[in-house]
Amino acid sequence: MTKALRTPRGLITAILLLLLAVLPLLTQALDQRYLLSIGTRIVIWSIAAISLNMILGYGGLVSFGHAAFFGTGGYAVGILAANGITSGWIQWPVAILAGALWATVIGALSLRTRGLYFIMITLAFAQLVYYVGAGLEAYGGDDGLNITRSRFGGMIDLRDKAAFYWLCFILLCATLWFCGRMANSRFGLVLRGAKANDLRMTALGFPVFRYRLAAFVIAGAFGSLSGILLANEGAYISPAMMSWVKSGDLIVIVVLGGMGTLFGPIYGTIAFFVLEETLKPLLDLGHRGWGEYWQIVFGPMLVLIALYARGGLDSLLGRRHG
Amino acid sequence: MAEPLLSTDRLIKRFGGLVATDSVSIDVKAGEIHALIGPNGAGKTTLLSQLTGNLRPDAGTIRFAGREVTHVPMHARARLGLARSFQITSVLREFTALDNVALAVQAHSGHSFRFLSDARREPGLREPARRLLAEVGLEGRADTLASALSHGEQRQLELAMALAGDPKLLLLDEPMAGMGPEESHRMVGVLQGFKARRAMLLIEHDMDAVFQLADRITVLVYGRAIASGAPADIRANPDVRQAYLGDEAA
Fold first, then answer.
1. Taking all residues of chain B, what is their mean pLDDT, rounded to a whole number?
2. Can you give chain A as a three-state secondary structure string?
């Protein structure tokens, strides 16, 4: 641990995590509540990005439908809440299970394809979920639905912004821990080996499909967790949370941060949100509504990353070992 | 007589109008090296791919280790003890040599649905992997990335991976491809060392190596096995000389 702190990567990562850990104290001291809400979204999106990285980064499977899991998590919580089941003890496991089940269905079908077909099928499934969400008139249809936040019988009040933030942060740490262990486990090595050369792995005797499906299901479960948190953050669900644009944003975040690295998705999420929040007001200085087009500046930055920093932001922190 | 370790019965594989494997019946007995030779495009790799399960034959059957495996999937055949090396070097480039072999060992040591413990610290995977690296002469390169190994070393690594799990039969697709004379010579030595313990089906263009190693040779031309027999018989066979060996064997 102390050894890791001596590298620039270790030091920067430690500082970032420390800042995230004490963010509610900072924003309170600075009286900047809005910052805490951005921070909360960064933490939640980091969980989603890490879960996508499990299949995209470690598995080499470009899933273009990961926002669907925002939907499975969010809508499971929202639909249960709308029907009077507000206990998080019930909602959250159901929502995670829903994500895992949906991932099993998508994975079982899409993992039989490769390359562009895989991208298209995962996108198609996510669009399917999107339109199902938009068609649920009883739950707000296109407009979405205001929900009551999950209740944990007095243990924690999710309406308390700081408490909710810390809950998200703890779940982010748990997700990181799991992903870090998984990456170097037997399972992780099979997944990474199959990314490098799936024919070789099959010839060695690995039923690659099963391992990939398992990875997909795990990623779906963690993705759903981020959806649960997203729904509770705004006390609101809508089909927009699972639009294909969000799936694209998640891919951008993972690529930007560094595919197949443990902390890359967090760097990517922070960069994405910080750039959005700074470029928008900057471009709006002339009051001409240019802020909406912040991605015009963000796009070329991505191109530069793609051209000159193949490993994403993570690679800018120096070489990795192991 | 005991059943051969591997046998095919009138195997046929067509690609459109082309018959790539034309009613081929061959076998490999325990403990022997059977070499498969033939000009480019004769269908050697296609035949090998059907044996491993990467390609499905259109007709005919494959038996291995006493059971029919014609429809057994590739990964399951590997577990039955059928290992292959690839014509085009097919190691995991971004892993170290030791990681490559440890993964091969892992494939034969239970399932890999283990998510939390560090596989690189499992002595049950690392130690056999180190022994296999030593067996092919790569013990000094354990921690080198596979992509940084020389071509010959990658071929050796490929072999070490195929040896994991103690396969009954090794299918070697041009193990000497792209090697210089010295590397080839070393590889022949390594393969000779295994000969007593493992049966091999060997595809190779290096005729010196083939005649040094093989107990039996089958000649494939346009998907058909035109001759099969001891090296001396093959060398003397006029059809083979005309179809394949040409002046080389004269």
1. 90
2. CHHHHCCHHHHHHHHHHHHHHCHHHHHHHCCCHHHHHHHHHHHHHHHHHHHHHHHHCCCCCCCCCCCHHHHHHHHHHHHHHHCCCCEHHHHHHHHHHHHHHHHHHHHHHHCCCCHHHHHHHHHHHHHHHHHHHHHCHHHCHHHCEECCCCECCCCCCCCCHHHHHHHHHHHHHHHHHHHHHHHCEHHHHHHHHHHHCHHHHHHHCCCHHHHHHHHHHHHHHHHHHHHHHHHHHHCEECHHHHCHHHHHHHHHHHHHHCCCCCCHHHHHHHHHHHHHHHHHHHHHHHCCCHHHHCHHHHHHHHHHHHHHCCCCHHHHCCCCCC
**pTM for this entry:** 0.89
B95–A196 CB contact, under 8 Å? yes
Q: Does B78 touch chain A (CB under 8 A)?
A: yes
Hey, which residues 260-289 in chain A have their CB within 8 Å of chain B? none
| In the predicted structure, residue B33 carries a pLDDT above the cut 60 | yes
| CA gap B242, B222 in Å, rounded | 14
pLDDT score of A18 more than 90:
yes
Query: Which token pair is B235?
Result: 């060398």
Which residues, listed in sequence order, are joined to residue B83 by a DSSP beta bridge?
A: B170
Higher pLDDT pick, A295 / A186: A186
**Min distance A200 CA to chain B CA atoms (Å):** 6
CATH number of B6-95+168-249: 3.40.50.300
Query: Domain coordinates of chain B in residue numbers?
Result: 6-95+168-249
| ipTM here | 0.87
pLDDT 10s digits, A77-91:
999 999 999 999 999
- Contact residues, B window 194-233, toward A, CB-based 8 Å cutoff: none
